[in-house]
Recover the amino acids of this structure.
């Protein structure tokens, strides 16, 4: 491989599945630098074969890798185990996981810290939280200047009749308070999902409970909430 032109090596490596890139990092310093290059990351995202990882979350920051067979009689098989790097102590307890674009957001040690983790590459970022009672969501957005994808973390605390929101930007590594007024109450915390730059929750109206449940979305580009009606009306929320 060392005799091949650099451009050809890059074209080969950008087609290698993400899990295999993690093992190749230790091959040489040149490849490790290449894998950290943002331009290579964008090319790899476009050209590499897409992979699905199925996790079963266990206690103490461990994830069981599962193989799912949907042909014939459905079955699941244990294929391996992953753990957060540098967090191997049995005293470290992980109890919240949020998923977006292959990234996992884990809250550890009574919510005093959160970890953003790419299980394919092994990269992590430890983030100090502002509150131990917050809940978190992770979503993507496009950088307006260069058009590349990046990520933000939405933190929210629920009080009796209102929410308090804050935003963490991965690029700047900073928290800031989000100045929004919510006329809804988020329901079923922990069942939210992120898709194409937005996170969705079930919610109810703060004033009129007779409206029943609906969907609320948060756009990570505009940093604003939106309300969506469900196909059929759900019972009112007590």
């Amino acid at each position: 491989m060392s005799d091949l032109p650099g451009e050809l090596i890059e074209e080969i490596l950008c087609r290698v599945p993400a899990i295999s890139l993690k093992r190749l990092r230790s091959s040489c310093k040149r490849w490790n630098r290449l894998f950290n290059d943002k331009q290579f990351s964008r090319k790899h995202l476009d050209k590499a074969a897409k992979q699905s990882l199925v996790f079963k979350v266990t206690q103490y920051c461990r994830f069981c890798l599962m193989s799912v067979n949907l042909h014939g009689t459905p079955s699941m098989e244990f294929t391996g185990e992953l753990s957060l790097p540098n967090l191997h102590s049995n005293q470290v307890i992980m109890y919240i996981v949020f998923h977006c674009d292959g990234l996992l957001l884990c809250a550890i040690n009574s919510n005093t810290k959160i970890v953003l983790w790419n299980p394919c590459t092994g990269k992590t970022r430890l983030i100090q939280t502002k509150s131990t009672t917050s809940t978190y969501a992770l979503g993507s957005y496009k950088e307006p200047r260069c058009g590349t994808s990046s990520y933000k973390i939405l933190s929210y605390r629920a009080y009796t009749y209102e929410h308090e929101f804050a935003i963490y930007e991965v690029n700047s590594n900073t928290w800031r308070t989000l100045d929004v007024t919510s006329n809804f109450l988020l329901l079923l915390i922990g069942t939210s999902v992120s898709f194409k730059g937005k996170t969705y929750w079930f919610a109810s109206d703060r004033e009129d409970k007779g409206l029943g449940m609906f969907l609320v979305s948060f756009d990570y580009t505009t940093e604003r909430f939106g309300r969506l009606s469900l196909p059929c009306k759900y019972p009112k929320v007590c």
User: Anything to note?
Assistant: The mean pLDDT is 77.
